[in-house]
Design goal:
Strand order of the largest sheet: 1-6-5-2-3-4
Shape: globular
Bound molecules: iron/sulfur cluster
Order of helices and strands: EEHEHEHHEHEHH
CATH superfamily: HUPs
Number of helices: 7
Strand content: 5-15%
CATH architecture: 3-Layer(aba) Sandwich
Structural class: alpha/beta
């Protein structure tokens, strides 16, 4: 069962608890501040085995830690589950579906931790990015939603400008590709094509 924001009830005994999957610092600022302002008890979860190479993962992790400190939000880091080989094996031969698989993997882990930790809801800062496949994120989240622990869907893209301005003001590290090695290739392939054209002249 997926619940839209207008229907999210608070707990009778206190604020509802939300586990927020965090993909990166620039995407986290707006959603975390918004949920905090609305009175939810929130905790972040950094689980992103899709980020390659490891050096890039470490940079983004560091940026999230700094942002979380500034926002006074606790974040759990699943560094032990950063396993390049396992992740690549999941994607190979399924490259055309890789983004859905990637969203599903991260949200499933988030949902399971939220369920064990008795959170009422789980969500993801991926829903903030205009560069992500928003419908696929929503589809993956909804497919994992349970009565006890629902997927909190919110179109955080509405706060795009606000989040970007805040990231700039805070000097947050901003990556220039989504995360996996395929996205890094797509981001830079024009440079390679330019070299090939030059060589063919
Ligand atoms: S492009 Fe981004 S969402 Fe898609 S598989 Fe790569 S890291 Fe995951």
């Amino acid at each position: 069962m997926t619940v839209r924001y207008s229907l999210f009830p608070m707990n009778k005994t206190g604020p509802a608890r939300v586990l927020v999957h965090i993909c990166c610092a620039p995407c986290a600022l707006y959603p975390l501040e918004l949920l905090k302002k609305r009175g939810y008890e929130i905790m972040g979860l950094f689980f992103n085995p899709n980020i390659h190479p490891l050096r890039e993962y470490l940079k983004r992790r560091q940026a999230v830690a700094e942002a979380a400190r500034a926002l006074e939000i606790e974040v759990v880091y699943l560094d032990r589950e950063y396993d390049l080989t396992t992740h690549m094996r999941r994607m190979v031969f399924r490259e055309d579906q890789r983004c859905f698989l990637c969203y599903h993997l991260r949200l499933e882990r988030t949902r399971n931790i939220a369920l064990n930790g008795r959170f009422n809801y789980f969500t993801s800062t991926l829903l903030y990015s205009k560069r992500q496949k928003h419908q696929l994120i929503s589809k993956a989240g909804e497919s994992l939603s349970l009565e006890k622990c629902s997927f909190m869907y919110e179109d955080f893209r509405q706060g795009w400008n606000q989040g970007q301005e805040k990231a700039e003001a805070m000097g947050v590290y901003r990556q220039d590709y989504c995360g996996c090695i395929y996205s890094e290739f797509e981001r830079n392939r024009a440079d390679l094509e330019r070299l090939i054209k030059q060589a063919d002249k």
